[in-house]
Amino acid sequence: MKTKQIFILLFGIGLVLSGIKPKEYFTWFLEVSPAIIGFILLFVTYKKFQFTNFTYFFILLHCYILFLGGHYTYAEVPLFDWIKDTFNHSRNNYDKLGHFAQGFVPAMITRELFLRKNVVANKNYFNFIIISICLAISGAYEWIEWWVSIGTGEGGDAFLGTQGYVWDTQSDMLLATIGASCMLLFLSKKHDDAINNLEP
User: Fold this and answer.
1) Alpha carbon 2 to chain centroid distance?
2) Spatial separation of the C-alpha atoms in residues 89 and 74, rounded to whole Å
3) Tens of pLDDT along 11-42?
4) CB neighbours of 36 closer than 8 A, spacing ≥ 6?
5) Helix, strand or coil, per DSSP, at residue 148
């Protein structure tokens, strides 16, 4: 079985498991929707553009973060409840991991597209543009959370997941920015190697 077929199989297993008796089916659907939409986009565009296995691995990892958050809701993931109790945190911070990944993985996707399609001619602006795009994605997602919460009332509260934290939106966008920056700082070399090892 090829690596990409394994990724597809693991995606399917994760999605199915997350959908077995989740905390709330409405919240589950909202949380896993980005993963499903992303999968469809990657599937439809696969013949035109295939990412490296390195990038696909991190996309799959991000999907599992979404699956877990969808199953329990982001405010009630058990491991992060334990972290909350052990370290006297005021809230379950699993959503912050999700928003870190929301910056980290799009940075990798954008970087690979930019490099392989030669989108940015002036490399001096390369990282700045990638981080800006990731911050824009994060901001747009906060809009979606806001609209869903307004449109569904209490039904969207678990999706919003602020847990009474007044700076939740701002900290979410900060974590996405940090995630994008960490990807560029720590994995650019390995990402370059993966791209260079692609078959012509």
Assistant:
1) 24
2) 15
3) 999 999 999 999 999 889 999 999 999 999 99
4) 15
5) helix
Give SS3 for 196. Answer: helix
Which tokens hold the place of 105?
């993985």
Q: Which amino acid is at 43?
A: F
Tokens of 119: 């989108």
Strand stretches in 57-144, DSSP E: none
What secondary structure letter does DSSP report for 124?
A: G
User: Strand ranges (DSSP E) for 27-121?
Assistant: none
- Give the predicted TM-score (pTM) of the model: 0.93
Tens digit of each residue's pLDDT (9 = 90 or more) over 114-137: 999 999 988 899 999 999 999 999
Say how far apart CA 115 and CA 122 lie, in whole Å: 12
Q: Which of 1, 34, 41 is nearest to 15 (CA)?
A: 34
Residue 66: both structure tokens together: 């979404």
Reported as half-sphere exposure (CB side, CA atoms, 13 A), residue 85 has a value of 6
Q: Which residue has the tokens 């678990």?
A: 158
